Amino acid sequence: MIHDTIAAISTAVGEGGIAIIRISGPDAISGTARIFQSKTSLNEAQSHTVNYGHIIDPTTGEQVEEVLVTVMRGPRSFTAEDVVEINAHGGVVAVKQVLDVVLQQEGFRTAEPGEFTKRAFLNGRIDLMQAEAVIDLIRSKSDRAFSVARKQAEGALSKQIKALRQTVIELLAHIEVNIDYPEHDVEDLTSAYIREQCGSAIEAIGKLLKTANEGKILREGILTAIVGRPNVGKSSLMNVLTQENKAIVTDIPGTTRDVIEQFVTLNGIPLRLLDTAGIRDTEDVVEKIGVERSRSALAEAELILLVLNYNEPLQPGDRELLEQLAGRSVIVILNKTDLPHQLEIEVVEQFVPADSIVRMSMLEERGLDRLEQAISDMFFEGQLESNDLTYVSNVRHISLLKRANQSLVDAIEASNMGIPIDVIQIDVRSAWESLGEILGDEVGDSLIDQIFSQFCLGK
Ligand code: GDP
Ligand code: ZN
């Protein structure tokens, strides 16, 4: 049983400027009522209502801040406890003052990072997977990653894992019956059944694991290097993508001195863009540092955008880059299509498939849709536009799914080899346990603490 009441400033996701104080615990309502001046006492407020009034400092009797207070009585709240949210409009300083007053109330203390979510989990309000999704929500860098995490927080993935677990428990029950009543002699039926149930669970796990990589991409962005000879339009591309003018654009070859990283989303596809200085031999020392960094950035990149000048015949430097990049995920951008066409596309097509060649004009900002399509085809097998956003993106979930998968494979093999059913049962049970761990059924205290300590304060 939880006795203390916790409070923290909780900045709502996606609303950077607005700070809310969230309070949860047995004294949340009565404690806040003592410092809240309004027409009627907060103690009488109905659940899920917003109440207007002022926070007063009980030691001085002074009004601290004009506020809106939301009351949510447990268990119909995020933590399943009584929850109060104080919405102060007066900016960070005012909110901090309000929090100070709140924390003076008896039984109140500052929440640890992730503690609200931890309470929701401990009170059975959400499962562990949903709780972890809240971490992802806070960290997600792109809109799409945000919707994936939100969908997960709502329990979409939990539902799939539960269904999977149901398949396994049915099998387990079947095996147990067989062990307990061997005289029924249903051995053959059972081994066919084992293969069938394990097989369908393995298939479902396989589908989930396939989404894992896409989930990671959505969360972290595709590490993307922009390369090309000087003056082909790399910085201009960067600028078109970022719509800011952070990278230097100039007519003088080699003026992008350093690697600049920027996070952008191209119609929902998150890219971590590295603007790499023109890769070429140079005597300029400052330039050389940039070139060194570009080289290592290039080695790490998951996607390479090679920019060529459509308005010039292919240069030896272009050909060198095309050769160097063989076997990598490359999209060739033919830039400056607003100018007359001089480049020999046939030669480029000897190095990269035609659908990885995109015609663009940075000057006229044309071809972005084609670039987006090419990236989408390369990384998402064209499935990105589907609304099925239940991705497995958490490393812990991935390794547990793999472990469950291995146990099921072992069970099938054992069954094929005619190994006694009580041995097979061990594998099936361990698959069941691995899946349970994903949902938080079998986790020890230390793991729970570890997971929740990753949160921001106020969540
Ligand atoms: P970088 O050295 O590869 O980074 O090239 P920049 O982005 O600095 O561009 C070099 C020059 O080409 C600048 O003068 C740009 O304005 C010009 N440029 C870039 N893209 C285009 C384009 O699509 N069309 C035309 N006509 N000029 C462009
Ligand atoms: Zn540049």
Summarize the structure.
This protein is an alpha/beta fold.
Folded structure, characterized:
It is a single chain. By secondary structure, the protein is α/β, with parallel strands linked by helices. The protein folds into three domains: 5-127, Probable tRNA modification gtpase trme, domain 1 (Gyrase A, domain 2, 2-Layer Sandwich), CATH 3.30.1360.120; 148-218 and 394-439, tRNA modification GTPase MnmE domain 2 (Four Helix Bundle (Hemerythrin (Met), subunit A), Up-down Bundle); 221-380, Rossmann fold (3-Layer(aba) Sandwich). The protein is built from 15 helices and 13 strands. The chain has helices at residues 28-35, 91-103, 115-122, 128-139, 143-153, 156-180, 187-220, 234-242, 285-300, 316-324, 345-349, 368-380, 395-416, 421-439, 445-452, and strands spanning 5-11, 19-24, 36-37, 49-57, 62-72, 83-88, 108-110, 222-227, 260-266, 269-275, 303-309, 330-335, 357-359. The strands form two sheets. The protein has a seven-stranded mixed β-sheet. A six-stranded mixed β-sheet has the order 9-10-8-11-12-13, with helices on both faces. Strand 11 (303-309), helix 10 and strand 12 form a beta-alpha-beta unit. Helix 6 runs antiparallel to helix 14, helix 7 (187-220) runs antiparallel to helix 13 (395-416) and helix 13 runs antiparallel to helix 14. It is flat and about 80 Å long. The chain starts with a strand and ends in a 7-residue tail after the last helix. The model is unreliable at 12-16, 244-259, 277-290 and 382-389 (pLDDT under 50). Zinc ion (ZN) is lined by residues 234-235, 256. GO terms for molecular function: hydrolase activity. Keywords: Cytoplasm, GTP-binding, Hydrolase, Magnesium, Metal-binding, Nucleotide-binding, Potassium, tRNA processing. (6S)-5-formyl-5,6,7,8-tetrahydrofolate binds at residues 22, 85, 125, 459.
